[in-house]
Amino acid sequence: MIIFPILILVSLLLYIYYKVMIIRSKDSLTQQYLNSKSKIFLGSFIFFFGINQYVFYQTKISLFIGILFILIGISQSRLGWKASKHYQAEYQKQQASPQS
């Protein structure tokens, strides 16, 4: 199963990309938005890593650890998704309001 290592690598690279973009940004709202996007990819990294470990080892202990990683990854991605939607709406409000 070559698909899971590819998904793990892609999500890790996107996580690092968004973390670097946070450092490059000066606006705090943009930083919060980029941090929420990075949480989504961190969650997907943990999720796919948990699945990959069970597929690779197929033991009871790897099943329990894999389930734990899957649950942590889902919750991290869900929280990042909610925060991303919130900050995206805040950013649109900021763009719509007149600048003074």
TrEMBL record:
Sorted alphabetically, which keywords does the UniProt record give?
A: Membrane, Transmembrane, Transmembrane helix
Under Pfam families, the record lists: YtpI
Q: Which residues cross the membrane?
A: 6-24, 40-57, 63-81
Q: Which InterPro entries match?
A: YtpI
What is the species listed in this Swiss-Prot or TrEMBL entry?
Halobacillus litoralis
Lineage of origin: Bacteria, Bacillati, Bacillota, Bacilli, Bacillales
Q: What is this protein called?
A: YtpI-like protein
